[in-house]
Amino acid sequence: MPVVLSLQEAHKRYGEQMLLDGASCALADDQKVGLIGRNGSGKSTLCRILLGEEELDAGEVVRSKKLRLGYLRQHDPFEPNETVLGFLSRDSGQPEWRCGEIAWHFAISDAMLDQPARALSGGWQTRVKLAALLLHDPNLLILDEPTNFLDLRTQMLLEHFLREFRGGCLIVSHDRSFLMKTCTHTLEVSRGQLTPFPGNVEGFLANLDERREHDRRVNSATLAKRKQLETFINKNRANANTASQARNKAKQLDRLELVEVAGDEASVAFSFPKIDRRSGPAVRTDNLVIGYSDRRVADNIHIEIEHGSRVGLVGDNGQGKTTFLRTICDSIQPLSGQLKWGFGCQIGVYAQHVYSSLDDRMTVLEYLEYQAAGNANTQQIKSLAGNFLFSGELVEKPIKVLSGGERARLVLAGLLLRKHNVLVLDEPGNHLDVETVEALADALERYEGTVIFTSHDRHFMHRVATAVIEVREGSVVSYPASYDDYVFRVQKEIDAGLRAEAAAHAHPEGPAADRKSRARADRDAQKRIKSVERKIARLDGDRKAASRDLLTVTDPKEAERLHESVSAISSEIEVLEHEWLELFEAVEEG
């Protein structure tokens, strides 16, 4: 388990907030680690520090000479009119056949390689950037919220890539399903410290619950002991015969301390206002056509959504999920057909762009007062703000300095200030931490109104959705099964596509066969080179340890055994180094 990147005694402060307070961690080239923590705890800052984009106030980032660091870029790296193949070749410096070989891992077809990269949807652009990342042959990846705005199909391809990737990973994500499918280890950032856990995120959270319960029992016992000692001291300190005992008990009392409860941080707690339950259709469409003046997105839409249902909208990016939501919210007009809401529907909307278009001149309190519109007094609004972690002076915080997660929480808080019996939510979980997403799911499960929503978070969709509508290839239809069935179907389609691509690459014909055969041989040689390097590193460590022991041992027999061990290891390393050289020369010549 060679450590290729580590953080030692790190300190980092932003204003009054201490993000890292003497924190340390180590990342190996064979571990996939999920980085979790509350919004604002320092996850993204830690990633930027490890990438060298930010400096520590104190402490050290140690990079191994063998480190080949890769990270998924969020910005647009494409040049104007540059094709996918052109970008991959320019970015990596690799020949075109090698770029095409890697691209098929992400279901990027030969036809798509010749398309302009900037013309692709966000999900396909992410696939192209992942292919570019792999072409650089990194042994450690840092991915900060890689699933944000990725559709289910692209998420599954990313999961497949990460499972097959032979190097290490540090992945920041609020999506528990994604972390469970990709990470075997967990690293939590909390209160300035980094806590590693040798298991996945669900194992970590279960362990955290156990530690929290243990700490609370310890505190309960401490408080009981404290009360017992205080009672004894109060009864006996004035009595000359027992004053000495009372003083001893007072010393015991001074030594009693409460432990800090593990992970006991403030959490969002909320419920949507209680509403009158309704029955019958909440919204109905008849031959509806949606889209824009220059293009149709979907037509012949016949949908009926019942009051009290929680409908998850699914489909690949670019298929029209947001267009459908904007149409039913009257944000854009339908091109033709009918859309009718039931009598008395009061609609609350959370849109992807809302949190980024808040009025920066307002404070948190001013925004909530504006949303309340006389439905609540100042004390009620402040109480609600506190439930969303805007307590005390934080309610006067200007919106312009809020993080993405804080803005998302603020918009959700605003929804609670009016009685809506229909909620339309477009990606409500983006920019929220795991705990807040869980709190939102809990609240929606208790909500007695109608929910129409879209989310790329599978755990959230699994918990909340009671019905599914699919947007696909110009149609919007009620899906005949559950969300879990939909996920299963998409996974089967992806697996079949990958198998077909693999078969096509396994049985090529003509000159392409030679190129791809060389590519396979090159890949196999590269894998063998890495395996040999790991063996050499391990044996070199064993040799150094034996050599150190040889310097201090006094027993002649033990000294002879160690000497023979050092010689044997050196011989084995020599053989491996010769093998490594042959493999390297073969790759260079190929």
Protein described:
- There is one protein chain.
- The chain is α/β, with parallel strands linked by helices and 590 residues long.
- It has three domains: 3-204, Rossmann fold (3-Layer(aba) Sandwich), CATH 3.40.50; 281-487, Rossmann fold; 511-589.
- It contains 18 helices and 19 strands.
- The strands form four sheets. It has a six-stranded mixed sheet with strand order 5-6-7-3-8-9, with helices on one face.
- A hairpin with a 2-residue loop joins strand 1 and strand 2 (17-28).
- The longest helix has 42 residues, at 511-552.
Q: Report the β-strand fraction as a percent range.
A: 15-25%
What's the architecture of the largest domain in CATH terms?
Answer: 3-Layer(aba) Sandwich
- Largest sheet data: 6 strands, mixed
* Low-pLDDT segments: 507-511
Multimeric status of the protein: single chain
Task: Order the strands across the largest sheet as they lie in space.
Answer: 5-6-7-3-8-9
Number of helices: 18
CATH top level assignment of the largest domain: Alpha Beta
CATH superfamily of the largest domain: P-loop containing nucleotide triphosphate hydrolases
Helix content: 40-55%
Distance between the termini: 30 Å
Radius of gyration, rounded? Answer: 30 Å
What's the mean pLDDT score? 84
Could you give the count of β-strands? 19
Number of domains: 3
In one word, what is the shape?
flat
Structural class: alpha/beta
> Looking at CATH, which topology of the largest domain would you report?
Rossmann fold
